[in-house]
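User: I need a structural model of Protein pinocchio from Cinara cedri for a docking pre-check later this week. Nothing fancy, just the predicted structure tokens so I can convert them on my end. Input:
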Amino acid sequence: MSSTSIQSMNNQNLRSINDQRFDNIDLVSDIEQAVTLEELKGVFKYCFRCGVNWEQDHVSLDCLECGGYSLERPCPICVGHCRNTWKRDLEESHRSGEASWIGECSSKYKEMGCDVNQICNRLEKVKATF
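Assistant: Understood. Predicted structure tokens for Protein pinocchio:
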């Protein structure tokens, strides 16, 4: 083997190593551009339809996904008489495109045996206003 062929092989090996280094640098820059879990959680607290930031208590009154409230709202069953606060179901709100809430009503209306149909009608009226 001549010294020229050895030098040629060494140059090829160096190029290969340098190419791998540049590939690794590209991978690192790709990682830096990746979205973190915390950033993703922050994005989830925005309305996908109108873009308002629920975390900052912004809402759009004419947007179905906002439903007139940010991340919390008074109980929709008794219109807040029970003083319970319902939390927005972020996943379901985004999936369905309509405001969705998680909570329980502890109103005396329930204890007095208020008809389920009346509650459903009241919810429909609330929903229709948004």
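Before docking, keep this in mind: The chain has two domains: 3-34, 39-129.
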